[in-house]
Protein backbone atom coordinates (compact mmCIF):
# COMPACT_ATOMS: atom_id res chain seq x y z
CA UNK A 1 0.00 0.00 0.00
CA UNK A 2 2.95 2.32 0.60
CA UNK A 3 4.02 1.75 -3.02
CA UNK A 4 0.45 2.32 -4.19
CA UNK A 5 0.28 5.63 -2.29
CA UNK A 6 3.28 6.89 -4.21
CA UNK A 7 2.44 5.47 -7.63
CA UNK A 8 -1.33 5.38 -8.20
CA UNK A 9 -2.64 6.90 -5.00
CA UNK A 10 -4.35 5.29 -2.07
CA UNK A 11 -7.82 6.00 -3.40
CA UNK A 12 -7.18 4.10 -6.65
CA UNK A 13 -5.54 1.18 -4.82
CA UNK A 14 -8.52 0.79 -2.47
CA UNK A 15 -10.88 1.03 -5.43
CA UNK A 16 -8.94 -1.70 -7.28
CA UNK A 17 -9.22 -4.05 -4.31
CA UNK A 18 -12.94 -3.33 -3.88
CA UNK A 19 -13.55 -3.95 -7.58
CA UNK A 20 -11.56 -7.18 -7.50
CA UNK A 21 -13.53 -8.41 -4.49
CA UNK A 22 -16.78 -7.70 -6.38
CA UNK A 23 -15.45 -9.43 -9.48
CA UNK A 24 -14.42 -12.51 -7.50
CA UNK A 25 -17.75 -12.64 -5.68
CA UNK A 26 -19.80 -12.29 -8.87
CA UNK A 27 -17.66 -14.61 -11.02
CA UNK A 28 -16.48 -17.79 -9.28
CA UNK A 29 -14.91 -18.88 -12.58
CA UNK A 30 -12.37 -16.07 -12.23
CA UNK A 31 -10.75 -17.74 -9.22
CA UNK A 32 -11.07 -21.20 -10.76
CA UNK A 33 -8.93 -20.16 -13.74
CA UNK A 34 -6.29 -18.54 -11.53
CA UNK A 35 -6.09 -21.56 -9.21
CA UNK A 36 -6.24 -24.20 -11.93
CA UNK A 37 -3.19 -26.42 -12.29
CA UNK A 38 -4.06 -26.99 -15.96
CA UNK A 39 -3.50 -23.31 -16.84
CA UNK A 40 0.11 -22.16 -17.19
CA UNK A 41 1.60 -19.13 -15.47
CA UNK A 42 1.81 -17.14 -18.70
CA UNK A 43 -1.81 -17.99 -19.58
CA UNK A 44 -2.90 -16.82 -16.15
CA UNK A 45 -0.99 -13.55 -16.63
CA UNK A 46 -2.68 -13.05 -20.02
CA UNK A 47 -6.02 -13.84 -18.38
CA UNK A 48 -5.40 -11.20 -15.69
CA UNK A 49 -4.51 -8.61 -18.34
CA UNK A 50 -7.57 -9.38 -20.48
CA UNK A 51 -10.15 -9.62 -17.72
CA UNK A 52 -8.94 -6.67 -15.67
CA UNK A 53 -8.03 -4.62 -18.77
CA UNK A 54 -8.70 -0.86 -18.37
CA UNK A 55 -10.81 -1.15 -15.20
CA UNK A 56 -7.76 -1.76 -13.00
CA UNK A 57 -4.42 0.01 -12.69
CA UNK A 58 -1.28 -1.54 -14.18
CA UNK A 59 0.29 -1.55 -10.71
CA UNK A 60 -2.57 -3.62 -9.37
CA UNK A 61 -2.30 -6.12 -12.21
CA UNK A 62 1.44 -6.33 -11.53
CA UNK A 63 0.68 -7.04 -7.87
CA UNK A 64 -1.63 -9.90 -8.88
CA UNK A 65 1.05 -11.33 -11.17
CA UNK A 66 3.53 -11.15 -8.27
CA UNK A 67 1.11 -13.05 -6.01
CA UNK A 68 0.64 -15.58 -8.80
CA UNK A 69 4.39 -16.01 -9.23
CA UNK A 70 4.90 -16.53 -5.48
CA UNK A 71 1.94 -18.97 -5.27
CA UNK A 72 0.11 -16.64 -2.90
CA UNK A 73 -2.92 -15.81 -5.04
CA UNK A 74 -5.08 -17.85 -2.65
CA UNK A 75 -4.56 -15.02 -0.11
CA UNK A 76 -6.01 -12.29 -2.37
CA UNK A 77 -9.44 -12.42 -0.68
CA UNK A 78 -7.86 -11.91 2.75
CA UNK A 79 -5.65 -9.12 1.40
CA UNK A 80 -8.65 -7.39 -0.19
CA UNK A 81 -10.58 -7.60 3.10
CA UNK A 82 -7.63 -6.19 5.02
CA UNK A 83 -7.22 -3.28 2.59
CA UNK A 84 -10.94 -2.55 2.73
CA UNK A 85 -10.91 -2.38 6.52
CA UNK A 86 -7.55 -0.69 7.04
CA UNK A 87 -7.67 1.83 4.21
CA UNK A 88 -11.37 2.40 3.52
CA UNK A 89 -11.02 5.87 4.99
CA UNK A 90 -7.94 6.55 2.87
CA UNK A 91 -5.35 6.08 5.55
CA UNK A 92 -7.36 7.37 8.46
CA UNK A 93 -7.93 5.11 11.44
CA UNK A 94 -11.38 5.12 12.98
CA UNK A 95 -11.55 6.31 16.57
CA UNK A 96 -14.52 6.80 18.87
CA UNK A 97 -14.46 9.84 21.13
CA UNK A 98 -16.85 9.23 24.00
CA UNK A 99 -17.87 12.13 26.20
CA UNK A 100 -20.68 12.91 28.60
CA UNK A 101 -21.44 16.29 27.03
CA UNK A 102 -20.95 17.99 23.65
CA UNK A 103 -17.39 19.27 23.15
CA UNK A 104 -16.28 22.43 21.42
CA UNK A 105 -14.91 21.78 17.93
CA UNK A 106 -11.56 23.37 18.81
CA UNK A 107 -11.17 20.96 21.75
CA UNK A 108 -11.95 17.98 19.51
CA UNK A 109 -9.29 19.20 17.06
CA UNK A 110 -6.74 19.49 19.88
CA UNK A 111 -7.48 15.95 21.07
CA UNK A 112 -7.20 14.67 17.50
CA UNK A 113 -3.89 16.47 16.90
CA UNK A 114 -2.38 15.13 20.14
CA UNK A 115 -3.42 11.58 19.31
CA UNK A 116 -2.12 11.86 15.75
CA UNK A 117 1.25 13.02 17.10
CA UNK A 118 1.35 10.25 19.70
CA UNK A 119 0.34 7.40 17.37
CA UNK A 120 1.88 8.89 14.19
CA UNK A 121 -1.23 8.31 12.06
CA UNK A 122 -4.37 10.13 10.96
CA UNK A 123 -7.68 9.54 12.72
CA UNK A 124 -11.33 9.85 11.76
CA UNK A 125 -13.32 10.62 14.89
CA UNK A 126 -16.84 9.51 15.66
CA UNK A 127 -18.41 11.29 18.63
CA UNK A 128 -20.46 9.25 21.11
CA UNK A 129 -22.34 11.09 23.87
CA UNK A 130 -22.61 8.92 26.98
CA UNK A 131 -23.93 10.47 30.20
CA UNK A 132 -22.72 7.49 32.27
CA UNK A 133 -19.12 8.77 31.97
CA UNK A 134 -19.92 11.65 34.40
CA UNK A 135 -17.33 13.87 32.70
CA UNK A 136 -14.04 13.73 30.82
CA UNK A 137 -13.41 11.82 27.60
CA UNK A 138 -12.64 8.30 26.50
CA UNK A 139 -11.01 7.49 23.15
CA UNK A 140 -11.33 4.03 21.62
CA UNK A 141 -8.89 3.20 18.81
CA UNK A 142 -9.28 -0.43 17.78
CA UNK A 143 -8.31 -2.44 20.88
CA UNK A 144 -6.76 0.57 22.63
CA UNK A 145 -8.80 2.57 25.13
CA UNK A 146 -7.56 5.85 26.53
CA UNK A 147 -9.79 6.58 29.48
CA UNK A 148 -9.75 10.05 31.00
CA UNK A 149 -13.28 9.96 32.35
CA UNK A 150 -14.44 11.00 35.81
CA UNK A 151 -16.10 7.60 36.18
CA UNK A 152 -12.74 5.84 35.64
CA UNK A 153 -10.96 8.16 38.06
CA UNK A 154 -13.59 7.49 40.72
CA UNK A 155 -13.22 3.73 40.20
CA UNK A 156 -9.42 4.03 40.51
CA UNK A 157 -9.80 6.08 43.72
CA UNK A 158 -12.23 3.52 45.13
CA UNK A 159 -9.75 0.69 44.47
CA UNK A 160 -6.93 2.65 46.12
CA UNK A 161 -9.05 3.35 49.17
CA UNK A 162 -10.01 -0.31 49.46
CA UNK A 163 -6.34 -1.39 49.45
CA UNK A 164 -5.27 1.07 52.18
CA UNK A 165 -5.16 -0.36 55.68
CA UNK A 166 -6.23 1.86 58.49
Structure overview:
This protein has 166 residues and is of the alpha+beta class. Helices cover 58% and strands 17% of the residues. The chain has 8 helices and 4 strands. Strands 2-1-3-4 form a 4-stranded mixed sheet. Helix 7 links the parallel strand 1 and strand 2 (122-129). Helix 2 crosses helix 6 (76-87) and helix 4 (41-52) runs antiparallel to helix 5. It starts with a helix and ends with a helix.
Brief summary of the model shown:
With 166 residues, this protein is an alpha+beta fold.
- Please give the count of helices: 8
Strand content: 15-25%
Rough shape? Answer: elongated
Measure the end-to-end span: 59 Å
Backbone CA Rg = 24 Å
- Summarize the biggest pleated sheet: 4 strands, mixed
Mean pLDDT: 86
The overall strand count is: 4
Main sheet: strand order: 2-1-3-4
Amino acid sequence: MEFAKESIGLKQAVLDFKNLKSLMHGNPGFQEVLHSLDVSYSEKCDFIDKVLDADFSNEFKQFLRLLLEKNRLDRIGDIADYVRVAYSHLGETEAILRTSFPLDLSLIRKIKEKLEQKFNRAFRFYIDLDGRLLGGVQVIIGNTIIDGTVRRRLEDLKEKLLTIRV
